[in-house]
């Protein structure tokens, strides 16, 4: 069944030549925080403490935006591929773009 | 021309002309050999980087609905309207891991729509048809909603009649036909620049003019203390509805065809991951936009002709000099054009791939596909104009919420399908029917209440379903979409167990496990025949053909 691939180090090839990869990482659990916290309405449905005249209910929910950014950035950075792998992806983008564009444009981006 | 604000109108028309030129020129941007392929016309070459994707998805997800209907809801209903903020916070961590799997499998197999994926994954043209139909039906009111934004600014500027609306949409339809997804991607730069400019100025200027944030929240507190007594907070009975609406809307957003179009147009997985962190900048702007509703209360704004959607344009008119109000109106107007274009492209892709090619002309060439999609995008836009001219736009936000309820019913096939094939294709179809039926019956039984508690409209009055109607002894409401999804999942699981016990075949999976984690540089099936042209080769066949 799906989602049964284990993540060996590097990117070894399976029998058919496709790279075996995985998205699994303990860091992914962090993503639960910004999903659960904004849904716990009773903990923030109040006026005090206010900030610059804003009731708690409003400013704290805008703060949750920052919480979401922080956790997704953390997870992204912690699970990021090696610079060489990222360069390979960029090279593939350029390669495909060059294959698609007309002759007068092949030189540049 | 009596009563028309000439300065505002001139500025709006100038910006409209600029984006029209950009819309047509876009066909030459990152030019491909030919636009007559769905990968090009419908997905912009599948090659957008981080910045373009940020503007495209931002322009796509945060629409004129944002600018007009959310503050209108805050103006009319208070704190409940702020659900848009937790909704757009929860969404990105929720789909962070999901969209990259969808991107990878679509990249490897060349899928253009979510229904392409469902067809191959579950070996089920029937379920794919249901996904396509649901997507098209849910998108139509969403496009109509964009027109409501344009209508609101036209009313505020004193422009009468439907003609300007029709002209704007005809021009939009023509450059979308011409340039495909490249047009909204390019115009989104203008849209978002104008929107951020407007928001920053509004958040600085308006509170100063109104006597500070204390005065703004104070005015809202006074208005809403009269009814439920909850003031600027949620009443105790409204909290569950708030959280479930935020969660349900978040689950629904990336099932919409136009969101998936934006995702598949990205050039690689890292582009999407980075955008999950960068897109919340729009959510922050959305929070401030929502509070324009309270600013309108403090400023004593009265909507034009009882159309609540006009409060933001009227507020801008009262607070800003004409020239800046014109810029703000242009932001709303262009904010309507970008998503409307992407939505019509997404609906056209669905029709072409999963109805036309699947059932009407199986041997269609890529060129014919692109031609059909272009024509369908025109039809979809004219349908939306017709809908807005004949349906009461006051209820635009509810139309969108109904669309959210039905699009959620594709979650088991599209989203769960990215992780597991355990659900049987027959179970998915049965679940879809159960969820749709439950959702529509519940929506039919929701009345709209006036401010004094009397029933204004008996049916389809909203999307929050009172639990007391299910015999539960509580005063809370829950978002209908989640309840309908629950019914969907229960039926899908039961029917799956039944079909497996009866040993009914669940077809062949035309995807391989490694497809879901593929990166841009990995080999793809581009050069092989289209997956819809032949029966799925299955895992054994794949091994042989894979490069």
TrEMBL record, chain A:
Pfam families: DUF3311. The chain crosses the membrane at residues 27-44, 56-76. Keywords: Membrane, Transmembrane, Transmembrane helix. Residues 1-24 are annotated as: Disordered. InterPro entries: DUF3311. This is Uncharacterized protein. It comes from Geodermatophilus aquaeductus.
TrEMBL record, chain B:
It holds the Pfam family SSF. The chain crosses the membrane at residues 6-27, 48-74, 80-103, 124-143, 163-181, 193-220, 240-267, 279-302, 322-351, 372-391, 397-419, 426-446, 478-499. It is found in: Membrane. GO terms for cellular component: plasma membrane. It is a multi-pass membrane protein. One of its GO terms (molecular function) is transmembrane transporter activity. InterPro entries: Na/Glc_symporter_sf (IPR038377), Na/solute_symporter (IPR001734), Sodium:Solute_Symporter (IPR050277). Residues 517-529 have a biased composition (Basic and acidic residues). Gene3D superfamilies: Sodium/glucose cotransporter. PROSITE patterns: NA_SOLUT_SYMP_3. The keyword Signal does not apply. Keywords: Membrane, Transmembrane, Transmembrane helix, Transport. Residues 512-547 are annotated as: Disordered. Its main location: membrane. NCBIfam families: monocarbox_MctP. PANTHER family: MONOCARBOXYLIC ACID PERMEASE (PTHR48086:SF8), SODIUM/PROLINE SYMPORTER-RELATED (PTHR48086). Belongs to the sodium:solute symporter (SSF) (TC 2.A.21) family. This is Solute:Na+ symporter, SSS family. It comes from Geodermatophilus aquaeductus.
